[in-house]
Amino acid sequence: MNTSITANAEEKIARFNAEGLHYNLVANEIYKKYSYIGDPFDKSFLEYIIAGLIVFDLGPRMGSNKYDFDRGFASRLDSKLRETKQLLEPLMKLSLAQIALQEHCDAMMTSCDTLAARGSGGLHEDQTKAFHVGATKILHFLNPHLFIIVDRHAARAFRMFGNIPFRNTT
Predict the structure, then answer these.
(1) Distance of CA 25 to the CA centre of its chain
(2) How many Cα atoms sit within 13 Å of 62 on the Cβ side?
(3) What percent of the chain lies above the pLDDT cut of 70?
(4) CA of 25: how far to CAs of 30, 56, 77, 95, 153, in Å?
(5) Which residues contact 104 (CB under 8 A, 6 or more apart)?
(6) Sign of torsion, CA 39 97 56 36?
(7) What's the pTM?
(8) Using one digit for the tens of pLDDT, what is the confidence trace for 34-74?
């Protein structure tokens, strides 16, 4: 048995890239828009975040009016981003290698909790459910250099091989 999550990394990456082409295509367009626009809180970037969430299989949780800025998901997302902007803005130019985690931990956790929150104005169409997975994807699209996407398979590998705790939020 391999004792490293990086064992056969090239093979694993090639398999993911073949099976997950749609993820990479949309993510690359989001990253291009991110670089071009410069301000991930700009309203014109929201439709790219929404497209990313749809492609990353969160569409059913967002409801039928995904791009509706009057009363649909886009409206709720815009509201949540305005609510978290002050906390997140100082983090937008930092990478995972640069950040002082202790210094920014509260802002990161509060922002994630705000984006995932259930209840009135929550991002999940079913207001009784939280939007944890979507919150992590949104944070990634806001700053892909800081907020990495860790799916359940990677989380399981970190838990098994790195003894890193994992809390299932689905």
Answers:
(1) 16
(2) 27
(3) 89
(4) 9, 11, 23, 22, 21
(5) 90, 91, 94
(6) positive
(7) 0.86
(8) 999 989 999 999 999 999 999 999 999 999 899 999 989 99
